[in-house]
Specification:
By secondary structure, the chain is α/β, with parallel strands linked by helices. It is 39% helix and 24% strand. It has a single domain, classed as Endonuclease, Chain A. It contains six helices and seven strands; from the N terminus they run H-E-H-H-H-E-H-E-E-E-E-H-E. The protein has a seven-stranded mixed beta sheet, sandwiched between helices. Strand 5 and strand 6 form a beta hairpin. The longest helix has 17 residues.
Length: 175
């Protein structure tokens, strides 16, 4: 297992030609670098500008990738009522959209009939899957990259099934 830095993520997206799809399935992420941001958001001291500045490198990578014509889609399966973390993510999603991502939300109760991989993932051009691994309480563990065609197909099919049922960000009301 590895842990990609910005350079590693950049290589993946630079190599992508058509599609990069991300499926998030956790209700809580306790990624260390976000904890202070979430505390400020909780206290009402976090603006959209703060959010954009905190993920500026990521947003620039998305802009660069989208400008090459790559379709960037992110889907989130969430429990309702939503956790505080999901509310924080929803607040910051407009910055992702502005950078070129399309984002949809699917209530977990509507995902029961979908075969899903056990971990969050990215799938690039339907051929390479990158799994994101977390601890039980949402801490970051690392990434696992595979080009196994069966795994990439599973991820692609799962993503498309979620995408078809999910609600676009602008229409999704956090409950």
């Amino acid at each position: 297992m590895e842990s990609l830095d910005l350079e590693g993520w950049t290589r993946l997206f630079d190599g992508c030609q058509r599609t990069a799809c991300h499926l998030e399935m956790r209700d809580n992420y306790a990624v260390q670098e976000e904890l202070e941001d979430i505390a400020k958001w909780r206290a009402g001291k976090w603006t959209a500008r703060d959010d954009a500045e905190s993920k500026a490198d990521w947003l620039e990578l998305m802009r660069k990738t989208a400008s090459r014509g790559v379709s960037l889609r992110r889907a989130r399966i969430v429990s309702e009522p939503a956790t505080e973390y999901i509310r924080f993510e929803h607040f910051g999603t407009p910055q992702n959209i502005e950078a070129g991502e399309q984002v949809r939300w699917l209530p977990r109760a509507q995902a029961s009939g979908i075969a899903l991989p056990g971990n969050d993932f990215w799938v690039f051009d339907g051929a390479t899957a990158l799994f994101n691994h977390f601890t039980g309480d949402g801490g970051w563990v690392g990434n696992e990259l595979t080009s196994d065609p069966k795994v990439a197909r599973l991820c692609s099919e799962a993503f498309e099934a979620v995408w078809a049922l999910a609600t676009p960000h602008d229409d999704y009301v956090v409950r």
